[in-house]
Amino acid sequence: MKPAYLLLFTFFLLTCKSVDKQVDNTKRQWAMLNFIKVDSLNPILKTSPDSYFNCPISKKSIKWEERNVLNPSAVVKDGKVFLIYRAQDQDMTSRLGLATSEDGLHFTKQTEPILFPAEDSLKKYEWPGGIEDPRIVEANDGRYILTYTAYDGKTARLCLAGSTDLKHWIKYGPILKSEKYRDDWSKSGAIVAELNGDKIIATKINGRYWMYFGDTDLFLASSDDLIHWDIAENNENNTSASV
Questions:
Q1: For position 64, which CATH number holds?
Q2: How confident is the model at residue 13 (pLDDT cuts 50, 70, 90)?
Q3: Residue 108 belongs to what domain range?
Q4: How far apart are the first and last CA of the chain?
Q5: What is the pTM of this model?
């Protein structure tokens, strides 16, 4: 190899290593790295055929997590890990349960669900499919904001709930409240947050909170208060803008 080509090749290798190092450092600024599977403890949650719940709609005692436990979301409060998870009964109705842990590895479940379809104004959205896919974030005032999917057996609708203790919840209804979008298929809302000390807190960007949501496609919504949301639209045709 001629000296000029050798010099260029050496420069190319050094440049690639420098870029790789920059990319690696950038990743370490935001990525949660170095996870190790703890197979000796997995699964950390199992179905509980002996957990009963008096369903306010069917008016009978049901085994509310007999079929599945899945799709959890976690947050740290008072030094404990709170895991909110989806559970299904044999009729495929979903409800949200709560499990807590001192070490993030060994969890103790509450015997009854914390969020479930009831005889309220949201029954038409939540029954008989139930409540699915919890996504939780903490606000800077100590509130907890939960996005979830309400499923009536035909259409999934992204909904919102709030709590101060992770056990008692206020339902705020569908996030897409306008008649234009209310009956669209929507789910899986993730609110943008940042690491603030040892907490992950919902954060504003250019004066507003932002949420990604969707299924096959991803969409955006923004809010002033984490409760009332406006969907981002395409200015050319006034339809929801995918990202």
A1: 2.115.10.20
A2: very low
A3: 36-240
A4: 48
A5: 0.85
